[in-house]
Structure formats: C-alpha cells, structure tokens
Amino acid sequence: MTQHHDHDHDEASSTLSPIAARVRALESILIEKGYVDPAALDALIARYETQVGPHDGARVVARAWVDPAFRERLLNAATPAIAELGIGGRGGEHMVVVANTPETHNLVVCTLCSCYPWTVLGLPPVWYKSPPYRARAVIDPRGVLGDFGLVLPDATRITVWDSTAELRYMVLPMRPPGTETLDEMQLAALVSRDAMIGTGLPAARESEA
Length: 209
Ligand code: FE
Fold this sequence. Notes:
The chain is of the alpha/beta class. It has 2 domains: 14-50, no CATH class; 53-208, Nitrile Hydratase, Chain A (Alpha-Beta Complex). It is built from 10 helices and 4 strands. The chain has helices spanning 18-32, 38-50, 54-66, 68-76, 78-83, 118-121, 131-139, 141-147, 184-188, 193-197, and strands at 95-99, 104-109, 157-162, 168-172. A two-stranded parallel ribbon has the order 1-4. Strands 2-3 form a two-stranded parallel ribbon. Helix 3 packs across helix 4. The longest helix is centred in the first third of the chain and has 15 residues, at 18-32. The protein is globular and about 55 Å long. It starts with 17 loop residues before the first helix and ends in a 12-residue tail after the last helix. Bound molecules: fe (iii) ion. Residues 4, 110, 112-115 line the site of fe (iii) ion.
C-alpha cells in the first residue's frame, strides 16, 4: 500500500488529482461495505475544520520562547513535548520541530502530496498542496519565499524539510525583537500559520498580527 494514507479530502471533485480520486473511490467503497462510518469521518473532518488550527501550534511556539527547558524537549522529541500542552493525536505521532536561527531558515513542504502537521496547524492551506509550491520549494526555496513576500539576507541558509506520512515538520520561528514584555498568550498571537510552515515570520508586534 501507499505510504501516504493520511490526507484531507476537501478538494472539489472536479479538481481531484488521480491519487485523490482513487482515495475518494476507496473511501466510498469502505463506507459502502460498512468498514467506515461516514458520520465518524464527518466528525473527524469537522474537528479539523473548527477546533484544531494554527492557534495550537502558536501555543507551542510561545511556550518554547518563554521556557528554555520546554524548547529543549520540543527540539529533542517534539511529539511528547507538544502533548504536554494537551495537543496531539492522529497525524501528530511523529512530529519534528526545526528551529530557525540567525544563520538558518527552515521551510516545510510535502513534495509527494500534502503531508502536513494537522494536529498543530489544522487543515493545510490550498497553496501547500499545489504542484508549483511542492516543486519549487525544493528547487528554488528563496524564490518561493520571495513570492510570499519574505526576503531573507543572502547569508541566511534555507533548509527545506520534506514531510511524509511518517514525519511531520513544524518550524519554530525566532522570537521577534521587542517582545520582551509580552506574556505567553500575547506572544502566541504573533505566530501565524505561515511562520510555522516557514513561508512567513512572526509579526513584530501584536498589533500587526
Ligand atoms: Fe503528503
């Protein structure tokens, strides 16, 4: 069987890729045969649409900014560290968090399909699943970041992490300067989804979030 089994199915039928169409067909058969309860599937999808989202990942980032010991645990073994905040579940079993530094910026992609850290970021944005992003993120990461309006110094190295069904990457961005007086909740408000994928940076101040 394919290694990539854990994907969202939210595209309109007309835009389904061949693989997505096959997954949809398989899902229909499983429902028809009684192996899968469509109500349970709907509940799972609704959970990711309404409850789980980038605010969860932002809590993880903010905690790492204020708590060096948590940061260490997060970078050494992300899944149990994230679970300390009550975040986790299906699709988040093998999380890896990679930290931006002044020397290195990290960018996450799934070149094969759309593997994504659902449990901390919710549903992926449409562009994350687009063939141009998936292809160019590897070939020309600096160009992709430019398309997102993110221009890094030439000296900053860009490391691209290819997510799979087995390993889901999340970026730990650097804490913005001038945020020393903010508390953990205020810091979390600075952290966007894109900052945790690597196509953006945290807002400099809460008013800009
Ligand atoms: Fe994938």
